[in-house]
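Side project, low priority. Logging it here so it doesn't get lost.
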Amino acid sequence: MSERVLVTGASGFVAGHVIAELRSHGYAVRGTARRPVDGLDDVVTADLSHDDGWAAAVDGCDYVLHVASPFPPNAPKSEDELIRPAVDGTRRVLKAATDAGVKRVVMTSSVVAVSSGHPNGPVRTEADWSKVDSSTPYSRSKTLAELAAWDFVSQSDVELVTLAPGMVFGPLRDTSVGTSVKMVLRLLTRNVPASVMMGFAPVDVRDVATAQRLALETPAAAGNRYILAGEHMWMRDIAAILAEEFNPQGYRVPTGALPTWFARVMARFDPTVRQALDHVGRIERVSSAKARIELGWTMRPARDSILDTAYSLVELGLAPNPSKKKATAQEATV
C-alpha cells in the first residue's frame, strides 16, 4: 500500500509541482484547499485560520508537506493578515499531525526567514535568522511561523524539516500568477519601463518539489533547515535573459535599470514593489550547500527557470506576442 502524504495549500503554484513530484514517485496524495484541485481527487477543505477540517485532513497520512502560506501581491492593510494565519496555521497543522501520529512534517519556509532585515554582508546559512523588527510583514510572517514550528516540535514527537526556498520561478500549471511569476510577466509584457533595483536568490519550482520529496525520504534530514536558492540576480539580469530570448520574436522587454531611490518612490504607488521592499538594493547571498550535501539536491540553471516561466506565460495566453497581435489587427483592417 502506498504511503500517503498530505500537501497543504494544494491549489498553489509550488504545491501543484510538489503533488506531481510525489505522484510520479508512487505516493498517494491528499491535499487541503478551499476549492477543487485539477488532477487531485482526494481534497479536504481546511483553512489555516480555523480548526475545522485538519483532523480529517491528516487522518491516515504518513507525512505532511506544509506548503500553504499567504504570499499576496499587495502589502496587507494589517500585518496580522499575514502573520496570524501563518503562525497559528502552522501550529494547527503540527498539532493535527502530532495527534494523528504522522511520521514527519516538511514545512516550506523561505529564504526571507534567513536573510531579511540584514544589510549586505556575508553569505547566510541555515544558522542565520532574519531580523524580524526590520523586515516586511511577509518576511516576518515566514520567520515567526518557522520559529513557532520549531518551538512546537521541541515539545512533541513529530519530526520536522524546514525548507527555505529563494524567489521561486518555473513553469505555471494554470493561469494563476503569483508574485514571483508576475515579475517575469511584467517584463515580458513591458508593463514596467525598466527594472527596479531588486535582487533575489532564485530557485526553480520543480527543484523545490524535488527537495520536498528528498526531505521526506532522507532519515537524517529530521531536525534540520535547508536553504534552496542559487546565486544572487538583479531584476535587470532577469530582464536581459528575457530580452535576449524574446525580443527577436517581437517582444520589447525593457533592459534599463531604475535607481534604488526611485524604487522606494514607486513603492508608495505600486503595491507589488512595496511588498518586495526587503529586496531593494540588497544582494541576496545565501548558501544551499547543506541541501546539496545532505539531501543530494541539485538545481537547474537560473536561465532555464526564467525562460521556462516566460514560455509558460506565453503558452497560457498571458503574454501574447505583440508583433502577432499587431499583424492580426492589420489583417482585420484589410
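Brief comment: The longest strand covers residues 159-165.
Revisit when time allows.
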